[in-house]
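Recall the central idea of this unit: under ordinary conditions, the amino acid sequence of a chain determines the structure it adopts. In this exercise we apply that idea directly, starting from the sequence alone.
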Amino acid sequence: MQSQDHFNIPLENIEAAVAHQSGRPHPLNVKVPTRAEVATLPLDELYQLIRKWIHKSAIEIVPSRKQIGEVLEILRSRADIPAMPALVALCEEYAGPGHAHSAPAEPYPEAAAPAPVTSS
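Accordingly, the structure predicted from this sequence is:
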């Protein structure tokens, strides 16, 4: 298994997630989709897989916004994706404005510039 196939999640992270969830009464998700799965799985199954990856994963495999942006790129190449707008919306909401192609978010206004120094 190559990490590139799992959106650059290292194999060690996946193995650690599996090990840490073993025996837990309510284990978290330890499945990271492959690029091939995103391109080919039935949309209903893929929706459940992506939703669990985003919202229910062990900390070792929680996806970044960039990774979900990469998922979106693959999804948009699928001919059947218009049938599952909820999957696109889920990914867009998580990835943020412009998803993988966006510029870094603007800082909070108060963090943009230091307060002026005044002498008393």
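Residues 39 and 77 are 8 Å apart (CA to CA).
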